[in-house]
């Protein structure tokens, strides 16, 4: 297990994408490669089980970046966001 995979991310935690990750489903760049490195979002789901049975998901962290955009990521692609209070406070 990689050291970054030991990171304990929790629901609602603010995180930043620390590695280059290309996605093709970004609402403003649909169908085109878009690098989300550096984007900040918050964890809205952690996949541990499906229909009551434990699973080992390849991309267990669901991170929401905007109302229309979320992505499933690995722990090795994320880091805790230190300046998150100002970004997500109401």
Automatic annotation (TrEMBL):
<feature type="domain" description="Ferredoxin thioredoxin reductase alpha chain">
    <location>
        <begin position="12"/>
        <end position="77"/>
    </location>
</feature>
<comment type="subunit">
    <text>Heterodimer of subunit A (variable subunit) and subunit B (catalytic subunit). Heterodimeric FTR forms a complex with ferredoxin and thioredoxin.</text>
</comment>
<dbReference type="InterPro" id="IPR004207">
    <property type="entry name" value="Fd_thioredoxin_Rdtase_alpha"/>
</dbReference>
<comment type="function">
    <text>Variable subunit of the ferredoxin-thioredoxin reductase (FTR), which catalyzes the two-electron reduction of thioredoxins by the electrons provided by reduced ferredoxin.</text>
</comment>
<dbReference type="InterPro" id="IPR044166">
    <property type="entry name" value="FTRV"/>
</dbReference>
<dbReference type="InterPro" id="IPR008990">
    <property type="entry name" value="Elect_transpt_acc-like_dom_sf"/>
</dbReference>
<keyword id="KW-0560">Oxidoreductase</keyword>
<dbReference type="Pfam" id="PF02941">
    <property type="entry name" value="FeThRed_A"/>
</dbReference>
<comment type="similarity">
    <text>Belongs to the ferredoxin thioredoxin reductase alpha subunit family.</text>
</comment>
<dbReference type="GO" id="GO:0015979">
    <property type="term" value="P:photosynthesis"/>
</dbReference>
<dbReference type="GO" id="GO:0016491">
    <property type="term" value="F:oxidoreductase activity"/>
</dbReference>
<protein>
    <submittedName>
        <fullName>Ferredoxin-thioredoxin reductase variable chain</fullName>
    </submittedName>
</protein>
